[in-house]
Amino acid sequence: MADMALDHSETSVRKGTLRRFAATDNAFRGMTWASAVLVLLILGGVIFSLIQGSLPALNALGLGFFLTQSWNPVTENFGALAPIYGTVVTSLIAMVIAIPVGIGIAIFLTELCPRPLRRPIAIAIELLAGIPSIIYGIWGLFVFAPFLQEHVQPALIAAFGDIPGLSSIFAGPPYGIGVLTAGLILAIMVLPFISSITRDVFDTVPPMLKESAYGLGCTTWEVIKQVVLPFTRVGVIGGIMLALGRALGETMAVTFVIGNAHRISTSILAPGTTISATIANEFTEADGAVYTSSLLLLGLILFVITFIVLAAARYMLMRIEKRLG
């Protein structure tokens, strides 16, 4: 009888433990579902608010809002072409500079740098990502832009002034501030994202793969080109897309150095504007329904551009993963 009572007690304890585990799993599953649904609700709320706020501008200005570069609050004639152009061009300049430099830093830190120096250099690069954007803006306006105005832009104008095509890209007086300056500041800001993520994914390459390549007589460049980059391409592209998203939406630093001029110029030395800079500059001055709605419509456009970029990156990663099996 005593043994039966003991077995019954152990069975009860086991059932109680199992019920407690099941309740814990259900609670954890419910919390994760609630978190996922909360994210979707927040995202849906943001989209709904932007669309609702954009309707007055769309009704008043129509599709002409997307095709004109004029921006006149007095006559309530607004166009998004100049901010869209500035956003795309500054981001492209930033990525053209930051991608090779960031990947080069990652290669140096993982393959070539002396081991005692790897950690200090990596920390220094990561600290760049922690600097507030307004600090980049102030530094760009008072230090970087004057340096470009005195030394770099005159040299670019002199070097490319007689070359057809490039003469229009590097034309005009050297203001210091402008689209090129904003692109360079953005390149510095997104550089830590590319280099840090790329370095981390480079560290995931199994040492056996690299040692096998070295054993076959490959050089360091051949190991990086034939082993490291193919093995980590998905992670590298993901880091680049994350940096591009940061470049598209950066506000304060760009506002300081781009010149905030609502016009499109073929010269990257000329002042311009971006979507985020226009919103930051003019939201406090928007006193009319169409004016405010136009700024909200700009925000919706930036949201759509960012969504398209991230969706394209996701689609590209899926194709790469599918091809690699």
From TrEMBL:
ABC transmembrane type-1 domain location: 84-313
GO molecular function, one term: phosphate transmembrane transporter activity
Protein's organism: Segnochrobactrum spirostomi
The keyword Transmembrane is assigned to this record: yes
Record membrane topology: Multi-pass membrane protein
Any single GO CC term annotated in Swiss-Prot or TrEMBL for this entry: plasma membrane
Primary role: Part of the binding-protein-dependent transport system for phosphate; probably responsible for the translocation of the substrate across the membrane.
Alphabetical UniProt keywords: Cell inner membrane, Cell membrane, Membrane, Phosphate transport, Transmembrane, Transmembrane helix, Transport
Compartment annotation: Cell inner membrane; Cell membrane
Record-given protein name: Phosphate transport system permease protein
Family in the record: Belongs to the binding-protein-dependent transport system permease family. CysTW subfamily.
NCBIfam families reported in the protein's UniProt record: phosphate_pstC
Keyword Transit peptide: no
One matching Pfam family: BPD_transp_1
Transmembrane segments: 30-48, 84-109, 121-145, 177-198, 295-317
Principal location: membrane
A GO BP entry: phosphate ion transport
